[in-house]
Design goal:
The protein is α/β, with parallel strands linked by helices. It contains 7 helices and 8 strands; from the N terminus they run βαβαβαββαββαααβ. It has one domain: Rossmann fold (3-Layer(aba) Sandwich), CATH 3.40.50.
Amino acid sequence: MLPNVLSLGAGVQSSTVFLMSCLGQLPKFTCAVFADTGWEPQAVYTHLEWLQEMGNQHGIPIHVVQHGNLKEDVIASTIQTTTRYASIPLYTLDEQGKKGAIRRQCTKEYKLEPITKFLREQVLGLSKGQHSPRTPQLNVFIGISGDEGRRMRMPQEPWKNHVYPLCNWPDLYLDQPYSRQDCLAWMTHHFPDHPPPRSACLGCPYHSDQEWKQIKDTSPHEWAETVQVDHAIRSIGRGESQKFQTDSYLHNACQPLDEVELDPHKNQLSLFSEECLGICGV
């Protein structure tokens, strides 16, 4: 049988999958891997520490990997015009008032690639540049819930099988597919003192108004930090490199974050539902 590993985001769904494995409701994992962007909310880091304690108790280590610090990389690209821009999906406004968006590459570079590198080198024992096997060597569990099944993806690497236990794919792992709300109910029942946080970078442009307002109301320090970054990215591409001829914003209103009138009741689609790599937000 192939080893089972978990791609851990430390949010609602992947935490549920991890703890189900700890309690024997899902197959036991060899390990879990968390990719730290360096810009996670403190609630995620605190929850991750508790998950690590649970993993140690049940023999499932959680390994933390990192490509760099996304926040620092984004800010550095506004100061040093020769620095390659760490592409988060910023909203843009050009001189004619036309709105747009910057292509997102952060999930791939700060989440997927560090996890893949760890699995290749530390789990499979492959050296850098060594050819990968052409047949599956690992089952990589991913915490996408049944109500977000459209985010499931086949692996690009032939040495991985993707497993979505909350969707009961490719096998029946649970008595029913689990939605995000089912995961929250399961966590409340089994671990009422440890509600899982939303797993997303602090300054992710995919935040809804409700999520922005929650940061503003509950974590003034993190709100101030995010506002500072929002002001810093305004002039991306206005330097010598002229990468973009637009102003950039964290909020889709294309206004400074601290000036946006946040409406938590606004009917806004979850932008994570369109997150094509299926990793963030779980």
